[in-house]
Amino acid sequence: xxxxxxxxxxxxxxxxxxxxxxxxxxxxxxxxxxxxxxxxxxxxxxxxxxxxxxxxxxxxxxxxxxxxxxxxxxxxxxxxxxxxxxxxxxxxxxxxxxxxxxxxxxxxxxxxxxxxxxxxxxxxxxxxxxxxxxxxxxxxxxxxxxxxxxxxxxxxxxxxxxxxxxxxxxxxxxxxxxxxxxxxxxxxxxxxxxxxxxxxxxxxxxxxxxxxxxxxxxxxx
Length: 221
Hints:
Layout: E1 12-17, E2 22-23, E3 29-30, H1 37-48, E4 52-57, E5 68-72, H2 76-87, E6 92-95, E7 102-104, E8 126-128, H3 132-137, E9 144-151, H4 155-165, E10 170-175, E11 183-190, E12 195-201, H5 202-218
């Protein structure tokens, strides 16, 4: 499909997608059900609109969209390092990745084995991962930062609180039904108070979101 030419100069768009993995030992890890489809669809929509796109992707088995520069990472700390580097030259950050909030305090060098006849319970000490979205948003300057909020209860109230707390320009609210699914229903909340609901296949929803996010950024120029 041929790319359309944007009415304004192309933006430099940074998109994150997929889950992160936080290893317990060489074969086990903590993660979540994120498929990465929405983030990849957003990256594809941005590239097709003529923007320059960097996609920082967690461990997912999805093809790289045409015209997109992809950086693969595994853990939250690796994603933060890649995003810090790409954010320096970005105009827009769309943080669609489902980053693990916690990681094991210690990664075992060998496989964690249950001892024969031993205890029936075990505990795993966890420590907080860095908040990638808040870290980058605190230094955004003229850049536009869009977050994602996956909620299971009181979603809109929680998403609006996250929007304000992390100094975002907009946030996309969805629920757990969107994980590993082809279709989604989202609410785009802007710092101005604007609200828009979108539903459908992730590709179509991504195009609509990208158009709105790009319009917000270019309106500042």
